[in-house]
């Protein structure tokens, strides 16, 4: 049985999106180093020992199965993965990420590769202040003083500012800051499958479009000109009613909501299928309804080429979809892209699915989750 040790790590960043760098580092520590137990408040601090932008600093505790040198190697790799380039002369410079081992349990280590406890921690207010948030009574095994005493005696007069930023142990915590993610795409793009996976993995309320019982849909694929308007009006009424019902009341036992459609798709499809006069009338009705519905914080569009769409449609085997015109699918794709382009204030992500197989390839699914993660962190939702 592997013995696990509680360790304390100091993290700092003063290059790029500092908060995003720290959050990504926490996620990677959780993945590669062990279970994140505690995260301190986030402090803004001046660069120490060199001229540079202000740092964001935190301290985290981790329950790790790694031996000290293994942990050091993992930390150095995480720094490199997140863009850290160490100076050749070993001097202090600005950095995307800096991670130091402060304590490894109560162990005392002193060799050429690693010194624990960190030899300078008692002189650094940007380490001691966040450390006091999560381990105020932890005793330094060499100096025999707890964190509060070390902080009181520290001669570092740097001004630290406690920020309002919040960091999370895992993606579930980060995603829970959202109310609604809408995952959109053409017919057969995989939006429902992806929505179900995210809802399952991150405890989200799943909002799925209900359309299988629409009596106009099979008729529409047989005679588009005749059934386009009643089909689109039927969809609009159903989507509006369902969306209002499903999104107006939040589930207290779920972290957020994820939907496999956004009600604006009604206008996208209507513009492709309806005649000009029909569309103008439809748009007026739509505009009244759209004002009342919940808007997603993230609108993720899964772009897929027509060939792959047709293959996916054939695979799922719905009889009424098997004769869909490829030109129709291309028009729908253009309609979605035009909608996104004409709504620059909407927080949209266009994800080219290409050859991605997020169902069977965990790396492809992880790629999509990282895109969502990046968007949340960069937009400060």
TrEMBL record:
GO MF, one annotated term: 2-amino-4-hydroxy-6-hydroxymethyldihydropteridine diphosphokinase activity
Pathway(s) annotated for this protein in UniProt: Cofactor biosynthesis; tetrahydrofolate biosynthesis; 2-amino-4-hydroxy-6-hydroxymethyl-7,8-dihydropteridine diphosphate from 7,8-dihydroneopterin triphosphate: step 4/4
CDD domains reported for this sequence: dNK, HPPK
Entries under Gene3D superfamilies matching the protein: 7,8-Dihydro-6-hydroxymethylpterin-pyrophosphokinase HPPK, P-loop containing nucleotide triphosphate hydrolases
Pfam family, one: dNK
KW Transferase (keyword) present: yes
This protein's record includes keyword Transport: no
Protein name: 2-amino-4-hydroxy-6-hydroxymethyldihydropteridine pyrophosphokinase
Organism: Flagellimonas profundi
Domain 7,8-dihydro-6-hydroxymethylpterin-pyrophosphokinase residues, every copy: 8-136
EC number in record: 2.7.6.3
Its job: Catalyzes the transfer of pyrophosphate from adenosine triphosphate (ATP) to 6-hydroxymethyl-7,8-dihydropterin, an enzymatic step in folate biosynthesis pathway.
Domain Deoxynucleoside kinase: 181-374
Family designation: Belongs to the HPPK family.
Lineage: Bacteria, Pseudomonadati, Bacteroidota, Flavobacteriia, Flavobacteriales
UniProt keyword list: ATP-binding, Folate biosynthesis, Kinase, Nucleotide-binding, Transferase
């Amino acid at each position: 049985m592997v013995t696990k040790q509680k360790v304390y790590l100091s993290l700092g960043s003063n290059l790029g999106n500092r908060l995003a760098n720290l959050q990504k580092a926490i996620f990677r520590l959780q993945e590669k180093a062990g279970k994140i137990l505690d995260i301190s408040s986030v402090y803004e601090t001046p660069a120490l020992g060199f001229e540079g932008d202000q740092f964001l600093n935190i301290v985290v505790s981790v329950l790790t199965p790694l031996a000290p040198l293994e942990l050091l190697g993992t930390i150095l790799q995480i720094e490199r993965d997140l863009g850290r380039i160490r100076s050749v002369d070993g001097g202090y410079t600005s950095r995307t990420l800096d991670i130091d081992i402060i304590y490894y349990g109560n162990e005392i280590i002193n060799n050429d590769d690693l010194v624990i406890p960190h030899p300078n921690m008692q002189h650094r207010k940007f380490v001691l202040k966040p450390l006091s948030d999560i381990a105020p009574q932890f005793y330094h095994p060499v100096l025999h003083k707890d964190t509060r005493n070390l902080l009181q005696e520290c001669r570092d007069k740097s001004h630290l500012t406690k920020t309002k930023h919040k960091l999370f142990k895992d993606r579930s915590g980060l995603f829970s800051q959202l109310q609604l993610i809408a995952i959109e795409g053409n017919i057969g793009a995989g939006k429902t499958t992806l929505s179900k996976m995210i809802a399952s993995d991150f405890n989200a309320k799943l909002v799925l479009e209900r359309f299988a019982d629409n009596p106009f849909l099979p008729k529409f694929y047989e005679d588009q000109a005749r059934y386009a308007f009643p089909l689109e009006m039927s969809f609009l009424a159903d989507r509006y009613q369902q969306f209002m019902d499903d999104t107006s009341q939040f589930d207290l036992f779920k972290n957020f909501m994820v939907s496999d459609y956004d009600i604006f798709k009604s206008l996208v499809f209507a513009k492709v299928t309806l005649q000009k006069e029909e569309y103008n009338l439809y748009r007026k009705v739509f505009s009244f309804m759209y004002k009342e519905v919940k808007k997603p914080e993230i609108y993720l569009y899964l772009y897929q080429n027509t060939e792959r769409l047709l293959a996916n449609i054939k695979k799922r085997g719905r009889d009424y979809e098997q004769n869909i015109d490829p030109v129709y699918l291309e028009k729908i794709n253009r309609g979605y892209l035009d909608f996104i382009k004409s709504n620059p204030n909407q927080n949209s992500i266009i994800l080219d699915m290409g050859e991605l197989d997020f169902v069977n390839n965990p790396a492809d699914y992880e790629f999509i989750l990282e895109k969502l993660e990046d968007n949340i962190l960069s937009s400060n939702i």
